[in-house]
Write a structure and sequence with these properties.
The complex is a heterodimer of chains A (75) and B (113).
Chain A lengths: L2 H33 L5 H23 L6 H4 L2
Helix pairs in contact in A: 1-2
Chain B lengths: L1 H26 L6 H26 L15 H38 L1
The chains are: A mainly alpha (75), B mainly alpha (113).
């Protein structure tokens, strides 16, 4: 993986992390206010889930360069 | 009769709002892959100035802020510049330290003479 490509992947990872954290926070606030009497745990749960999704995406993205993909296997 | 339906109506409203929020989040690609997330961010960034303009017109503040000043600040560049400065000063530190010690010793020797 060239350094430029790696840099772009890390940029995407960070942006994705921020996006998913924000989305999780927003959804957590919505659910906490509507269903769980404004407690804190849904907010932390959803934010954590968002961060976890971003982590998994980043992991897949960084690993994809070293994996054999289906289109190459057919050859 | 109304007393029995009202809690149901409240629950239905809450479920609709929560479901709508989840649907909007999933549909706009906020919960998808990294590329979709960055696409959504770009769309949001592009949509903010026109939305701001509309809001300002609505409140009649258009005369006060004619155009948003183009802020040329890039956090990425500042961070990278900071990292480069730190590493370069760390790598030059031993040389500079020995230089300063030599200069200090020379100064003291001159004083003693």
């Amino acid at each position: 993986m060239s350094e430029k490509e790696l840099g772009k992947k890390w940029d995407r990872c960070l942006a994705d992390g921020v996006t998913k954290l924000g989305t999780g926070l927003g959804l957590g606030i919505v659910f906490s206010v509507l269903f769980f009497k404004r407690r804190t745990w849904p907010i932390t749960l959803f934010s954590g889930a968002g961060l976890g999704m971003a982590y998994a995406n980043c992991q897949n993205d960084l690993r994809s360069h070293y994996l054999l993909h289906r289109s190459e296997k057919e050859q | 009769m109304a007393a029995r339906i009202w809690p149901l109506v409240k629950l239905a409203t809450k479920v609709t709002i929560a479901g709508g929020a989840v649907y909007v989040a999933c549909d706009s690609g906020l919960l998808g892959s990294s590329e979709q997330g960055s696409e959504a961010l770009e769309k949001a960034k592009a949509a903010v100035p026109p939305a701001l303009q509309d809001w300002m017109k609505y409140f009649g503040l258009e005369a006060q802020l004619p155009t948003m000043p183009k802020i040329e600040f890039s956090p990425v560049n500042s961070w990278n510049a900071g990292v480069r400065w730190t590493i370069s000063s760390l790598s030059e530190a031993p040389t500079r330290a020995s230089e300063y010690t030599n200069q200090g010793l020379q100064y003291v020797k001159d004083l003693i003479k």
